């Protein structure tokens, strides 16, 4: 695929107007400053048009959680989506031992996702996903490392389309960032919280 076609798939001038508007709303979203969000290459085979973002929840030099959000668009519609747009996400975070041992943790993490959407008054359909809890124990030359646990949320849902067939992707992104913050253990941002920043444009790799 040449560069021009790739740009169109990702919101270029030849992409459908509803998809371009949805991508523009993602770029204009205002987010918590603790969450660094930037574009990343989108998958090529899931839908005719796609736009992807990656995010990291940062506290000083420490990364508390990370994730990826992909906006898919099929102008012809998709039976499984029951719509023309779909949001797909992956969220990961390290867990405190006490939280990792909670037998209800998967149900709680799924409720964080649905609760984040509902808290912003968003309507959506066909939600699906998995919550995976993994533990690592170290032996031999690594025996001094403490055991570590991680939670991983994989999910997708269909955002309801509004005026012009365009979903409120900016609000869905904000809800997804609320989920990231909650998984990372950050306190919730209050209504009208001024500590937000505009989504940056693509920049080079960074290190901490």
Q: What does the model show?
A:
- This protein has 208 residues and is an alpha+beta fold.
- The chain has one domain.
- Helices cover 26% and strands 37% of the residues.
- It has 5 helices and 8 strands.
- The strands form 2 sheets. It has a 6-stranded antiparallel β-sheet.
- A hairpin with a 4-residue loop joins β4 and β5.
- α2 packs across α5 and α4 packs antiparallel against α5.
- The longest helix has 16 residues.
- It starts with a helix and ends in a 10-residue tail after the last strand.
- This is DUF3000 domain-containing protein.
Key traits:
26% helix; 208 residues; two-stranded antiparallel sheet; disordered N terminus; alpha+beta
